[in-house]
Design goal:
This protein is an alpha+beta fold. The chain has one domain: Roll (Nuclear Transport Factor 2, Chain: A). It has 5 helices and 6 strands. β5 and β6 form a beta hairpin. Keywords: Signal.
Length: about 150
């Protein structure tokens, strides 16, 4: 009589225990995080986009919004926005994904970028890095000097 009870108890515990996340579930979570980030960019909600980015460095929200408004590049809409996402690595607070991001307004005939992106988990939210969005947007990473020297010809 004791054996069937233990078997039932084991079966019940397995049933009610939370399942471990699978790679497919992780891919869906990362895809959702990237999709939401690209949607903020496409909609021109740059202040909210800034808040959804990790590794922002010294760039202010205001400066980021100004620089994003200066570029004509935007994520494509709908199914072209993001394709073929795969998870390359995942740790507790970081992940690396490989995905094709569709772009509009590029000066090149190529209107997509297929590459690796680093994601960072901050307070339970997976965030893309500011440098990746800046790169996709075609923003220059070279700082402009506030004091430029002028050559005077005699």
């Amino acid at each position: 009589m004791r054996f069937p009870f233990l078997l039932f108890l084991l079966f019940f515990l397995v049933l009610i225990s939370p399942s471990l996340p699978s790679a497919a579930t992780d891919a869906v979570i990362f895809e959702q995080a990237v999709s939401e980030t690209l949607d903020l960019w496409r909609e021109g909600r740059y202040e909210q986009l800034f808040d959804r980015l990790a590794h922002r460095g010294k760039m202010s929200r205001e400066r980021f919004a100004i620089r994003m408004r200066e570029t004509s590049i935007r994520p494509a809409c709908c199914w072209q926005k993001m394709e073929h996402l795969s998870v390359l690595s995942e740790k507790r607070t970081t992940a690396t994904i490989y995905v094709k991001v569709g772009l509009e307004g590029t000066p090149n005939p190529v209107d997509s970028s297929t590459r690796e992106f680093k994601l960072t988990n901050e307070a339970g939210l997976w965030k893309m890095q500011l440098a990746d969005i800046s790169s996709l947007a075609g923003m220059s990473t070279v700082k402009k000097s506030r004091h430029s020297k002028k050559h005077i010809s005699h």
